[in-house]
Amino acid sequence: MIEARGEKPETWIVRVGCDTCKKWRAVDLDALLADRGGNFSLVNRRYRCRLKPDCSGWNQFYYYSGVMRPLWDDATTDRWMKHDSQVRTT
């Protein structure tokens, strides 16, 4: 992540959004690097919502470089959808 951060202009940002409460915020990449180390990546990751107390949604990451784009691939989308469907039916 350090190399990717160093190659991107300052206008390149990462945001996190919740699929349930619809809250958004910017991700402090420098703080994330300091906390997790240079090999950490947000690509194909999601976490339970930390943007709103008591929200059970998923936080997903997007990068902005002119438009917001997801930080996950199609295979990960399929995996997440299968997981979420199984959770809803149990």
TrEMBL record:
<protein>
    <submittedName>
        <fullName>Uncharacterized protein</fullName>
    </submittedName>
</protein>
